[in-house]
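Bumping my old thread because nobody answered last time. Still need a sequence for this structure:
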């Protein structure tokens, strides 16, 4: 059998998603996630205009060969657009292979290595009282790990904090205009690292007082510190035993982490914007990180991320796959199958999709008291309802841009 058709679906049930559909000559359908938040149409075009016709007539069983064909074949390689496009094809082919085998994908990847995947929730609050309420809510639902983000005195809306009290933080969609229509340009936020450095350690101290030592506490610094600031911060928060400190410095500078490591034993997670094993070469071989934050969607699919995680595993580094709502339910399912199968699973980020999104993507993964399981439906276990999706037109949206108090552009 061969690949008969390849098509790209762009839909916006609450936020934008790009989904690849591959159909084989014997009628099996595979789905792949190609969503790149705020740059969705570039991946859609990459797939539609440059990849789709090259796949028709190929043997759908040859997943590794197809991966290499798409990675090495076009000469230009790596980067978020290319690797998200490759990821979508790879996921769809694994979906097809597992459906034909009549098995959930994790069985083809070696079978389950655990009963379920520990996940972490997103708690935020503009002040400590609101943050504490949010954390309490998650603990009551059975979560054992919570990412905490809070407002910084003197700053307005910042990354990771819900602007409406009691509301869920969901930077999804990347901002549209206030009336819900297409954005024309990104919104802007203001940032001040000294204010953040002064404020955060006290927040962690209060959380430990209120929730004890058992709760896994995570925090995302979102690339905003310099190497020496990150070293100071990681050292200052050491007493509060974070599960991880994420993206403490701008991620492309791998050797920056040497300085942080020299000064602190706070575990480090990095890499949601990286997309190939080569982006991690120094980080892994020098043991500069503890968790790999890459998602299946942005790292060349199951094939690409498995290569990376197997390499990381040799150095005792574990997975912490990216899972905000900009990873679609298809990408989330792929993460869950891979996470269930590998030995060096660490933790899975979980930001549940909205009811609107889940009305379009039908999922079979399930949450139970702090753990997710991909389910046992053959394949990935997610279907896109194309009729339902057609009601939601793509709406241009942007992630915000960050500036320092004096107007200098800074990492968001
Ligand atoms: C995370 C991330 C996200 C990103 C988002 C950008 O740790 O989940 O930092 O919140 O900001 O994926 O599109
Ligand atoms: Mg992050």
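Sorry it took so long. Here it is:
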């Amino acid at each position: 059998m061969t690949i008969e058709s390849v098509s790209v679906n762009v839909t916006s049930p609450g936020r934008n998603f790009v989904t690849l559909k591959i159909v084989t000559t014997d009628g099996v359908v595979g789905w792949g996630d190609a969503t790149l938040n705020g740059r969705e149409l570039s991946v859609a075009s990459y797939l539609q205009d440059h990849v789709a016709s090259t796949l028709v007539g190929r043997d759908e069983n040859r997943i590794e060969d197809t991966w290499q064909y798409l990675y090495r074949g076009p000469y230009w390689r790596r980067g978020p657009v290319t690797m998200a496009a490759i990821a979508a094809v790879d996921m769809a082919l694994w979906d097809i292979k597992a459906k034909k085998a009549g098995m959930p994908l994790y069985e083809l990847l070696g079978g389950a290595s655990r009963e379920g995947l520990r996940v972490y929730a997103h708690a935020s609050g503009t002040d400590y009282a609101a943050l504490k309420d949010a954390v309490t809510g998650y603990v009551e639902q059975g979560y054992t790990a919570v990412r905490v983000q809070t407002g910084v005195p003197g700053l307005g809306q910042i990354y990771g904090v819900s602007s409406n009290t009691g509301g869920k933080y969901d930077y999804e969609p990347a901002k549209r205009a206030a009336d819900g229509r297409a954005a024309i340009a990104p919104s802007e936020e203001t940032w001040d690292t000294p204010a953040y450095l002064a404020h955060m350690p006290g927040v962690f101290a209060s959380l430990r007082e209120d929730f004890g030592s058992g709760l896994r506490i995570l925090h995302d610094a979102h690339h905003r510190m310099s190497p020496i600031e990150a070293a100071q911060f990681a050292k200052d928060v050491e007493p509060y035993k974070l599960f991880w400190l994420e993206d403490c410095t701008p991620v492309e500078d791998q050797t920056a982490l040497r300085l942080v490591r020299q000064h602190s034993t706070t575990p480090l997670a990095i890499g949601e914007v990286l997309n190939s094993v080569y982006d991690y070469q120094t980080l892994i071989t020098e043991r500069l990180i503890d968790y790999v934050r890459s998602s299946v969607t942005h790292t060349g699919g199951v094939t690409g991320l498995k290569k990376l995680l197997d390499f990381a595993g040799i150095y005792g580094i574990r997975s912490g796959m990216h899972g905000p709502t900009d990873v679609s339910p298809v990408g989330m399912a792929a993460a869950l199958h891979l996470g269930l199968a590998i030995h060096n699973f660490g933790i899975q980020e979980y930001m549940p999709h909205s009811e609107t999104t889940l009305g379009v993507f039908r999922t079979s993964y399930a949450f139970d008291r702090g753990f997710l399981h991909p389910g046992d439906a053959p394949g990935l276990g997610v279907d896109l309802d194309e009729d339902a999706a057609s009601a939601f037109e793509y709406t241009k949206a942007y992630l915000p841009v960050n500036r320092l108090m004096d107007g200098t552009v800074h990492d968001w």
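Residues 80-101 form the longest helix (22 residues). Let me know if any region looks off to you.
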